[in-house]
Structure formats: C-alpha cells, structure tokens
Write a structure and sequence with these properties.
Elements lengths: L1 H4 L12 H17 L16 E4 L5 E3 L2 E3 L5 E2 L11 E7 L13 E4 L6 H9 L4 E5 L11 E5 L11 E4 L1 H8 L3 H5 L6 E8 L1
Length: 196
C-alpha cells in the first residue's frame, strides 16, 4: 500500500488536490475490502473547509516609481500580508549586527544572502518587513499559491519578505549600495518613500 500511495500518480497527495482525492479513494476501497464500517455517518471521509492564499497582484513603489512584480521584485505568498505598507525609512543591517533594535523597522540586506538560521534569528527580532537585494529576480519562479489553512485567519502573521532587484537596492541605499553589496557598510538608516 505504501508504494501505491507514494507513487507519482498520486501527485504528492497534498490536501485539497486531485492527488489527495485519488489517495483517499484508494484508502476507501481498501477499507471496504477489509469490511471496515465507515465512522462518519456512513462515510469514510470527514469534510472540512480549507483556505489557501493566492497572490493576484503585488505592487512596490520607491520614491514615486512603480516596479514590476516578477521582474524587479518578488515574494513568496507565504511571507506576505494582505495589506499595503507605507515606509518612510529603511535600515541597512550590517552582516553580524545582532544588537541594533530593528523591531518594527523595514530592513534591507545586500550581498551574500544570510543562512536560514540567520534569517530565523532576524525574524525573531520582529522587523516590520525585510527586503533582500538579489540578482536575476526575473529568472526566479513566482509562487502565486500558498499553503492551505484550516482557519481563514492565521494566529501569527509572517514578516513580509520581498526580494528586490539591484536597481531597487541602488535607489534605497543610494551611494552606499556598493559598500552594502560587499558587506563593508555599517548599519545605517535611509529616508525613502516606499510602498509595498
């Protein structure tokens, strides 16, 4: 049975997908063959609502200039909120800076990307949002569907995380962009008009 359920024809069995329905049907057939009595009012299934976030549109504006989603910036649907943020300043956080109070601030990181552990520790410091300057955003896959949830409301909102192009990084970090990219810049705050 394990080989059948793990077979690629089951399409991964993610909840709410056709693969999950195929797997459920196979299990129902096996229960019937074994003579097991359905335990949910004559059914082997328990029906419940699922919710999935879908990214229909995303906007990012810096100092009045609009940037294109998928070309100039990108984000994972699981790290966005359904709101618009108006930001008056961004803080470049120097590599290794673990003491600056970043709670409620929009952070920008450039250069070598931090490890997953470093990102996790950064999020624990409760920034309002994190911008990661990266190359080749237009070549990255865009995820428009998120995870499934049992509740329409999440108990904890994610820190919005956005990957931005070097062009946006240069606008935000101004004359310090090259120093930030080679990580020789100290933590510094920049005034801007950022809408995301």
């Amino acid at each position: 049975h394990l080989f059948i359920l793990a077979d690629p024809s089951m399409e991964g069995r993610e909840t709410g997908t056709e693969g999950q329905r195929k797997a459920a049907e196979y299990i129902k057939q096996q229960f019937t063959k074994l003579g097991l009595t359905p335990g949910n009012n004559g059914s082997y299934e328990q029906i419940y609502q699922l919710y999935r976030d879908t990214l229909k549109d995303a906007k990012l504006t810096v100092n009045g200039k609009n940037y294109e989603f998928g070309k100039d910036f990108a984000a994972s649907i699981n790290n966005l909120t359904n709101s618009t943020m108006y930001v008056g300043e961004v803080t470049y956080l120097a590599k290794g800076d673990t003491t600056t109070d970043i709670k409620g601030k929009t952070i920008i990181l450039a250069g070598k990307q931090p490890s997953q552990t470093e990102i996790f520790k950064l999020y624990q410091r409760q920034p309002a949002a994190v911008l990661f300057v990266q190359q080749g955003i237009d070549k990255q896959a865009i995820q428009r569907s998120g995870r499934m949830y049992f509740s329409l409301y999440r108990s904890r909102q994610p820190v919005p995380s956005v990957r931005v192009s070097e062009e946006i990084g240069k606008v935000l970090l101004q004359e310090d962009f090259d120093k930030a990219k080679d990580q020789s810049l100290a933590t510094k705050t920049y005034t801007t008009e950022l809408i995301l």
